[in-house]
Amino acid sequence: MLFKQQVWLRQKLLVLGSLAVGSLLYLVARVGSLDRLQPICPVESRFGGAHSQAEFPLRALQFKRGLLHEFRKGNTSKEQVRLHDLVQQLPKAIIIGVRKGGTRALLEMLNLHPAVVKASQEIHFFDNDENYAKGIEWYRKKMPFSYPQQITIEKSPAYFITEEVPERIYKMNSSIKLLIIVREPTTRAISDYTQVLEGKERKNKTYYKFEKLAIDPNTCEVNTKYKAVRTSIYTKHLERWLKYFPIEQFHVVDGDRLITEPLPELQLVEKFLNLPPRISQYNLYFNATRGFYCLRFNIIFNKCLAGSKGRIHPEVDPSVITKLRKFFHPFNQKFYQITGRTLNWP
Ligand code: A3P
Question: What membrane topology does the annotation report for this chain (predicted)?
Fold first, then answer.
């Protein structure tokens, strides 16, 4: 009898213990996720907004975070959104490129900042004539819901190389902040090629080798008609943008460093966007299986980028690499000179 009572008592203690630990874990996770969405004063004073942090007690924020989520799923009425001051704001900063520079990683990592809300999809408003014809309200409606004191950021890498885009963005907002993430030009061109190659392979199509596309077989010179090469001549594209925006409105992100050491790069962006430093080493952890840094929002919610980011590149003839590097060198020098950021590419 005594033995039975002891067993019963032990079981009860075990259940109570698990409940206590579970609740504690839940609370810690909640606080972590709330911190992410907490509107912050310095941001508000810079970007304007109706509420101060004091007006957003944690409980209310918790509810509001849920509301944002529900609205994204289409479960909330417009009236509720209006009541809670949710808005769809035009972006205050745009990641304009460069394709394969690490644009997705940059957007996702900036989204760790509580004052930043990302547009998840590439909207292609300024580079696609059909979308552009739909007007600015169409564009705004594509933006995620946010609190007025947050800023929206979108990324569409084709913006950087598309002729009409600088003027169109200028017409929307001449003081917008523009982020360009670049990688060593030859590596970027190979990454670009790898993406196209994967698409062809998926459709069971054959494709040329990189060497054949990048080098003109008649002249044995770099083929400047090949898009992957042209895109990597960063200075040529930037010069078009500079007809509309002063260089102070651009910030160059080192995409190679974002891979190996993301935090200092993100801190430079926070500064450029006049955001208080909120992204910390806690938010970024190296995942050895992926071979990349992944994102940690709180103790429960982590994520790595999709498998399409970080592909294995095909081997390229070293003489072709040397030729390309030599070709890009003068353009790189000019790019460093214009932007004031030296990246020590070969
Ligand atoms: P590779 O696939 O060549 O490695 P974009 O998002 O502009 O298409 O850029 C894709 C590149 O982002 C990838 O190129 C990858 O190297 C880089 N990248 C940077 N940080 C990353 C991260 N944390 N996880 C995955 N890819 C990352």
Answer: Single-pass type II membrane protein
Q: Tell me if 293 is assigned to a ligand binding site.
A: yes
pLDDT tens across 173-194, in order? 999 999 999 999 999 999 999 9
Residue among 104, 109, 154 whose CB has most ligand 1 atoms within 8 A, to mutate: 104
pTM: 0.83
What CA–CA distance (Å, rounded) separates 65 from 72? Answer: 11
Write the DSSP string, 64-122.
HHHHHHHHHTT-S-HHHHHHTT-EE---SEEEEE-TTSSHHHHHHHHTTSTTEEE-SS-
* CATH number (domain holding residue 132): 3.40.50.300
Distance from the CA of 198 to the center of ligand 1, in angstroms?
A: 15
Question: Does some domain include residue 13?
Answer: no
Q: Is the residue at 178 inside a domain?
A: yes
Instruction: Please give the C-alpha separations between residue 137 and each of 140, 162, 217, in angstroms, as whole numbers.
Output: 5, 22, 48
Flag whether 292 is in a domain.
yes
Residue 239 lies in a domain: yes
Residue 140 assigned to a binding site: no
Selecting among 100, 155, 177, 323, the annotated active-site residue is: 100
pLDDT value of residue 84: 72
Domain count, the chain: 1
Please report the pLDDT score of residue 318 as a whole number. 98
Q: Does residue 225 have an active-site annotation?
A: no
Q: Whose CA is nearest to atom 18 of ligand 1?
A: 102
Residues with CB under 6 A from ligand 1: 99-105, 157, 191, 258-259, 292-293, 305, 309-311
Overall average pLDDT of the 254-272 stretch: 98
